[in-house]
Design a protein that fits this description.
The structure is a single chain. The chain has three helices and no strands. It is mainly alpha-helical. It has two domains: 48 residues; 30 residues. It is rod-shaped.
Length: 79
């Protein structure tokens, strides 16, 4: 129950500050956009950055499959 009172008090303080000063609402908007960008950046790093060992393995596996397919195509052209 204390958790809900804490959240409510924080929300009430933010709403009061937004009503009193217009710049606070603009700042909250910019902070929320910044958090969204940081979350998307972290997601990209986890999923696509080549320094991640899991991604290194997936890239290697994809390259290996492509190499095998190309090798089969070259072998079929020779015959």
């Amino acid at each position: 129950m204390t958790y809900y009172y804490l959240l409510f008090s924080i929300f009430a303080i933010l709403v009061y500050m937004m009503v009193v000063d217009e710049n606070v609402s603009t700042a909250i908007l910019y902070v929320s956009k910044l958090l969204n960008i940081q979350i998307r950046r972290l997601k990209w790093i986890i999923l696509y950055h080549p320094a991640n060992p899991i991604n290194k393995y997936l890239i290697w596996r994809r390259s290996w499959k492509l190499a095998k397919e190309l090798q089969k195509e070259f072998d079929n052209e020779r015959v």
